[in-house]
Amino acid sequence: MRHDLVKRVLWTARDLQQSGLAPGAQDWSLLRRALFDLCDEDGTPCDARTLWAHFRAQAPPAVDRRRLAQVEAAIERAQSLSLPLTPSSENAPAELLSALSELGAAFAELLTHHPLTQKS
Question: What contacts 37, CB < 8 A, 6 or more positions away?
């Protein structure tokens, strides 16, 4: 899961944030591709929603469903913001980057409380 979803989506956003520059229209397609141009484990093209639905369906019963839902909601928000092929406003790239930061936080929270990462 980390490689397929996190690497493409969250690392792209992190790299833009760490650049110190405000994201602009030129970054829009990069962020969109990170959400829409993914592949599932079979190599079939898919988007982040589809990939997350696959991961969520495979989650062990012990995984906190509320945290899974938080990640899903963050993916939904980011993809909804990035639906236009071009930014809808000058602030749209920054709003999308913020949504991706929220996704990163939700994902980190999920991993922090994942039963396989808990110490006995």
Answer: 8, 45, 47
pTM, two decimals, is 0.83
Cβ contact 4:51 at 8 Å: yes
Write phi, then psi, for 39 (nearest 5 degrees).
-130, 145
User: 3-state DSSP call for residue 45?
Assistant: strand
Give CA–CA dist 32/110, Å, rounded: 23
SS3 state at 38: strand
| Digit-coded pLDDT (tens) for 22-48 | 887 778 888 888 899 988 888 899 999
Write down the domain spans for the chain.
2-117
User: CATH second-level architecture of 2-117?
Assistant: Up-down Bundle (1.20)
Strand segments (E) across the chain: 38-39, 45-46
> Is 13 in contact with 34 (CB distance < 8 Å)?
yes
Which residue's entry shows tokens 């996704």?
Answer: 103
